[in-house]
Amino acid sequence: MARARTVAGYAIPGVIVFFFWLVVVIVAIIVLAFIVHLAGGGVLDLRLGHFILNVGFS
Fold it and tell me: What pTM was estimated for this model as a whole?
């Protein structure tokens, strides 16, 4: 049986808690991306031997 959390006397199933935190993480990523966009973007230039990764974003 799945674990339930108790909030204000109500039992909330674990799957609901999982999806709540999933939505919180997705919203946090979107907000951080918006802040980077407002700040002017950025460039990632990673070189590891023959491997070169060049990513720019705004």
Answer: 0.61
